[in-house]
Amino acid sequence: MIFGFAVTVAGAATLVALWSFVQSARNRLPDNPLLIALAVVELLLVVQLVIGIVLLAGGDRPGSLATYLAYLIGSLVVLPVGAAWALAERSRSSTAVLGIACLAIPVMVLRLNEVWSGATA
Amino acid sequence: MEQQRRTASGPGRVLVAVYAIFALAATSRAGVQIGTKFHEAPLAYLLSAFAAVVYIVATIALARRGDGWWRVALVACSIELLGVLTIGTLSLVDAAAFRHPTVWSVYGEGYLFIPLVLPVIGLYWLRKSAPAKVSA
């Protein structure tokens, strides 16, 4: 994996998570700027998937291919599902839901990089 | 207009979101473990799968309305608490038998102890949103 890019994705997701929690504490509903920020993080995750596939195609192998693919693809699912769940009932809680979904991303990206560097589980 | 308390409303939506993430994490982990190295530690990996099923059931039950789903959520959260306490204790007492990690090993240490806290919050939330408390 390209470590610098992983840090960028994890950092961006963490920032959007913090933003969500601040907005929730201010009693705000999910608004467009927040949703756009979420979309940007999702876009970065798509780029990460492409990088991951290109590296695999180039012959590099992670510690566990199945685990690696699970994190690579799983990380794409979290934000859209989280956003759908958040927007189905708009309240300050749904803003916090977006924050929770974003918090899962740095964890998954970190694990993805561990697996890429040889961790087997 | 009466405001019915529902498990998936208000703060409950955040709870469902956390449960869903754990359902995803536990299911993926169990799937990979069973799919690629089941023979290494069948018991540990079956436990992983069991934990995954409990998280999935809890997520769905908490997300749904109705007394029936409320009871399902109560059972799922209770099993979850029992599971994390039992496996957590066993993994400390007999570390050799639990070398292969499950979500519930050492009370969910590998997951920031969230597996230990989550069922407690879940049960508290179910108590607050109990059907008996909903005035008709």
Output the keywords.
heterodimer; A: 121 residues; mainly alpha; 81% helix; B: 136 residues; elongated; Integral membrane protein (chain A); transmembrane (chain A); membrane (chain A); transmembrane helix (chain A)
Short description:
The complex is a heterodimer of chains A (121) and B (136). By secondary structure, chain A is mainly α.
Which secondary structure elements does this structure contain, and how are they paired or packed?
The complex is a heterodimer of chains A (about 120) and B (about 140).
Chain A: H1 3-25, H2 32-57, H3 65-88, H4 92-116
Chain B: H1 11-37, H2 42-63, H3 67-93, H4 114-128
How is this structure best described in words?
The complex is a heterodimer of chains A (121) and B (136). Chain A is mainly alpha-helical. Chain A has four helices and no strands. Chain A is elongated, with a radius of gyration of 15 Å. Chain B is mainly alpha-helical and 136 residues long. Helix content of chain B is 67%, strand content 0%. In chain B, α1 (11-37) crosses α4, α2 (42-63) packs antiparallel against α3 and α3 (67-93) runs antiparallel to α4 (114-128). The radius of gyration of chain B is 16 Å and the shape is elongated. Chain A binds chain B through residues 64, 66-67, 70-71, 74, 77-78, 81-82, 85-86, 89, 91, 93-94, 96-97, 100-101, 104, 121, and chain B through 8-14, 16-18, 20-21, 24, 28, 31-33, 35-36, 101.
